[in-house]
Design brief:
alpha+beta
Length: about 140
């Protein structure tokens, strides 16, 4: 009986949570508080490159994953470098918190020296690895 009561309470809680979210969203739309498109500036690939963060297993130096951190096109050109470093730091902190929570033995390497290969339309590292940019991110 306890299992049925708990399942009913979970289902009812989910329904009420969804109803509250939809009511709040409807109220925000009626009040005119809707997400607005943010103006983006032109992206100069020669100056503002994405940053590559690579995670390696500490024990056997195996690459676990790679992440490209894109420049913030919402910031002004004057603040772009600061916003880029802040974004990279935030991503690295999030990865480190998750790794600590999961007790992973890993280390992070950050590469600020990516180059655009115009022939292949990819970002390349000094080691020759290539990273393709998705079409929806191209703001140039």
């Amino acid at each position: 009986m306890e299992v049925v009561r708990r399942a009913f309470a979970d289902a009812l809680g989910s329904i009420l949570d969804e109803a509250a979210f939809r009511a709040s969203l409807a109220f925000d739309v009626l009040a005119g508080r809707v997400p607005r498109e943010v103006e983006r500036r032109w992206w100069n690939r020669a100056v503002e490159t994405p940053v590559l963060i690579e995670a390696y297993d500490w024990t056997d130096e195996r690459r676990l994953f790679s992440i490209l951190v894109w420049p913030s096109l919402e910031s002004s050109p004057h603040d772009a470098d600061y916003a880029r470093h802040e974004r990279v730091d935030a991503v690295k902190k999030a990865i480190a918190r998750g790794a600590a929570e999961m007790a992973w033995s890993m280390r992070l390497e950050t590469d600020y020296g990516l180059r655009w290969d115009d022939d292949r339309q990819v970002w390349t590292t000094r080691g020759g690895f290539a990273y393709e940019m998705s079409a929806e991110h191209d703001a140039a």
